[in-house]
Amino acid sequence: MSAKDKADGAVPKKEESTSENEEEEDKTTMETIRRFFAQTLNFSESNNETDASRTVEQVIPDLTFEGLSAHWREHGFKKIVTMVGAGISTSAGIPDFRSPGSGLYDNLKKYKLPHPTAIFDLDYFMKNPKPFFALAKELYPGSFEPTPSHYFVRLLHEKGLLQRHYTQNIDTLDQLAGIPTEKIVEAHGSFYLNHCLKCRKEYDMAWMKAQIFADKLPKCEKCKGVVKPDIVFFGENLPYRFYSLPDEDFKDCDLLIIMGTSLEVQPFASLIRHAGPKCVRLLINREPVGRASYVSAFDKNDKDSMRYGKPHNIRDVGYLGDCDAGVEALAKALGWEDELKQLIQKERELLTQEASADKKKDEKSTKPSDDSDKAAPSSSSSS
Ligand SMILES: [Zn+2]
């Protein structure tokens, strides 16, 4: 089974409640709801009793990248959570549309957006969905390949070490790298599924792709409402999994790897505070982000900041550099260098083969036919 098959095969499901353990389920649901409101309304959670008993322990004596690698080699980590942002996809060539001067940002000028982020503003989208779909065409998954950073996470999974992979990215490169769907939390959604904004009818990726690349505004076949990819816009909630899974994921998690994120976008950034008392936190990023301010550096109960290279650091390690360089250094230190290289090579060959097969298929299907004015093959819409 290829990486792409895996990515296409399993559709993320909503958590289902079973009849047994209903009481337990109710508790979990209540806890999830409580956390949901705490995070979306920005209530402080730091004063509950569970936090008081959680004094962070120093697991690694030498809190440098070398110290962490040595500890990993000698003692290992058993349960790893990764959380990633745009930085792990930049080497794939995915442009940063927020940066003035980038080609993408300039392309959007003709739409006269009030500000670049208006493109992900639900109210704006309702009035004028065209700029979003123009951007979607530029960024559409399929034109980019996963990076060594994505494949490093896949390697963690192959080794049975990956508990969960939380991503802010909407590029679906995590799935394309063969990280199983159930291991991924796409915190800001993705192009994977699409829904009609009026009647909620679901459409799959192939249907949406056909619409976008035909420069059509995707309209619901049932009610003519606009169909939008399940990307979390401003004013929309994050997926249920983002709120329901961290408790279980961080229980016994002994290493949190944070890569390529500014740690500024909430509630995503607040994931770092779930790390338990024995959890080491490794940041791989170009800029030193997420660090304690001067004041909070003296607050031992400050769970929202990292302390690498600062006083009172007991568990944080920082690697300042490109994500790919960071994971390659880590792989080398762990003796996984060849394994990572081989995995990348094998997977990229598969993707190239699939891309050329898809291209042939596309060429066949775009040949003129009797019903060429129909938008998309009906077989591709999901049931
Ligand atoms: Zn509809």
UniProtKB/TrEMBL annotation:
EC number(s) on file: 2.3.1.286
Coiled coil regions, renumbered to chain: none
Cofactor note: Binds 1 zinc ion per subunit.
Cofactor (UniProt): Zn(2+)
Biased amino acid composition, Basic and acidic residues: 1-17, 352-374
Binding site for NAD(+): 86-90, 96-98, 168-171, 261-262, 285-287, 323
Location of the Deacetylase sirtuin-type domain: 58-337
Reaction(s) catalysed by this chain's protein: N(6)-tetradecanoyl-L-lysyl-[protein] + NAD(+) + H2O = 2''-O-tetradecanoyl-ADP-D-ribose + nicotinamide + L-lysyl-[protein]; N(6)-hexadecanoyl-L-lysyl-[protein] + NAD(+) + H2O = 2''-O-hexadecanoyl-ADP-D-ribose + nicotinamide + L-lysyl-[protein]; N(6)-acetyl-L-lysyl-[protein] + NAD(+) + H2O = 2''-O-acetyl-ADP-D-ribose + nicotinamide + L-lysyl-[protein]
Residues given in the record as Zn(2+) binding sites: C196, C199, C220, C223
Region called Disordered, residue ranges: 1-30, 352-383
Active-site residues from the entry: H188 (proton acceptor)
Domain of life of the native organism: Eukaryota
Recorded GO MF terms: histone deacetylase activity, NAD-dependent; hydrolase activity; NAD+ binding; NAD-dependent protein demyristoylase activity; NAD-dependent protein depalmitoylase activity; zinc ion binding
Keywords: Hydrolase, Metal-binding, NAD, Transferase, Zinc
One cellular-component annotation, GO: nucleus
UniProt-recorded name of the protein: NAD-dependent protein deacetylase
Lineage, uppermost ranks: Eukaryota, Metazoa, Ecdysozoa, Arthropoda, Hexapoda
Encoding gene, per UniProt annotation: Dwil\GK22445
